[in-house]
């Protein structure tokens, strides 16, 4: 731990106000999501506990019927917006981290294989990546989500909606991981330590796992951070369009979709606060990813 606080990475972090603010925002929002069961005044997923008489209560205003007051107001169902945002953050972050994890595992594995094995396997993987990168990732995610929902029986669609959402976004974001890892692998496999491992009789998969993989994790970390912001936005977009998280477990995108219906009728807070939360999270993660890229890439120093 002492070595970490003496490292160049820590000193670079301390000297960057943007990185400190972005990291603080991410920690605040992630911490709020993790502690939602203890921080949230109510459980917005418990439909039986909702009181429709609390609907459309403005922020910091006593409800005309029940006399209850809510910090961020309520939506049309009487759901406390602060609680809904904290629980919605849990859904959005869970989908984002899971989708990035899937894209990372798939992309790194295919990139290692393409770069180290080469030949027809490299050509096939890269051609698939080239075809996929020509389409916006959100369209690919919508296509995968639609196909998966069509295959599933109707009674299981709502229960498996989150899993299908993770699969859709993960399969639409693996290309950048694969391309980056392939390029790094092409360089690393020609170095002396890899040749020495071959002479020692190590197999392909042992060399890729023990020797090449640790040397490609730096760029992968940067891509994962930036992709996390893209995955969260993709989840919000799909949920906003009504093909993402179910209404019974609303994510930030679902809350924004609900709020948009009441924006022009005067209930502005139903849209504003979830949208600001999503904007703050995506912007902070993006800024943190940009800082990591600049810090971990010596060519940009």
Textual characterization of the structure:
It contains 15 helices and no strands. It has 301 residues and is mainly alpha-helical. It has a single domain (2-300), classed as MetI-like fold, CATH 1.10.3720. The longest helix has 37 residues, at 81-117.
Structure characteristics:
transmembrane helix, MetI-like, transport, 301 residues, mainly alpha, MetI-like fold, 0% strand, BP-dependent_transpt_permease, ABC transporter permease subunit
Concise summary:
By secondary structure, the protein is mostly helical.
What does the overall shape look like? elongated
Overall structural class, as computed from helix and strand content, comes to mainly alpha
Rg over C-alpha atoms, rounded to the nearest angstrom:
23 Å
Number of helices: 15
Mean pLDDT: 86
Major beta sheet, specifics?
none
What is the CATH superfamily label? MetI-like
CATH topology value: MetI-like fold
| Assembly category | single chain
Map the helices and strands:
Layout: H1 2-5, H2 8-14, H3 17-34, H4 36-39, H5 81-117, H6 119-133, H7 137-151, H8 154-157, H9 161-172, H10 175-188, H11 192-199, H12 204-212, H13 217-240, H14 252-260, H15 269-296
Keywords: Cell membrane, Membrane, Transmembrane, Transmembrane helix, Transport
Family: Belongs to the binding-protein-dependent transport system permease family.
Domain ABC transmembrane type-1: 89-289
């Amino acid at each position: 731990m002492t070595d970490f606080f003496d490292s160049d990475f820590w000193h670079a972090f301390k000297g960057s106000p943007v990185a400190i603010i972005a990291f603080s925002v991410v920690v605040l929002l992630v911490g709020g999501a993790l502690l939602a069961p203890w921080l949230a005044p109510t459980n917005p997923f418990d439909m039986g506990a909702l009181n429709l008489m609390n609907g459309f209560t403005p922020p910091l205003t006593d409800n005309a019927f029940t006399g209850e007051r809510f910090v961020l107001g309520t939506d049309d169902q009487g759901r406390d917006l602060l609680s809904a945002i904290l629980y919605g953050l849990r859904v959005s972050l869970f989908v984002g981290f899971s989708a990035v994890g899937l894209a990372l595992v798939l992309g790194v594995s295919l990139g290692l294989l393409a770069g180290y094995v080469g030949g027809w396997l490299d050509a096939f993987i890269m051609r698939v990546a080239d075809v996929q990168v020509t389409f916006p990732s959100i369209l690919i995610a919508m296509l995968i989500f639609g196909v998966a929902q069509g295959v599933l029986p109707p009674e299981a669609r709502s229960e498996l909606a989150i899993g299908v959402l993770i699969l859709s976004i993960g399969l639409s974001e693996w290309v950048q991981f694969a391309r980056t890892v392939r390029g790094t692998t092409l360089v690393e496999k020609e170095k002396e330590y890899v040749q020495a491992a071959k002479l020692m009789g190590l197999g392909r998969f042992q060399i890729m796992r023990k020797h090449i993989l640790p040397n490609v994790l730096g760029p992968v970390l940067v891509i994962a951070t930036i992709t996390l912001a893209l995955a969260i936005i993709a989840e919000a977009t799909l949920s906003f369009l009504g093909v993402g998280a179910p209404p019974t477990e609303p994510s930030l995108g679902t809350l924004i979709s609900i709020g948009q219906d009441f924006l022009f009728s005067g209930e502005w807070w139903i849209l504003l606060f979830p949208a600001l939360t999503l904007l703050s999270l995506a912007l902070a993660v993006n800024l943190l990813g940009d800082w990591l890229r600049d810090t971990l890439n010596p060519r940009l120093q």
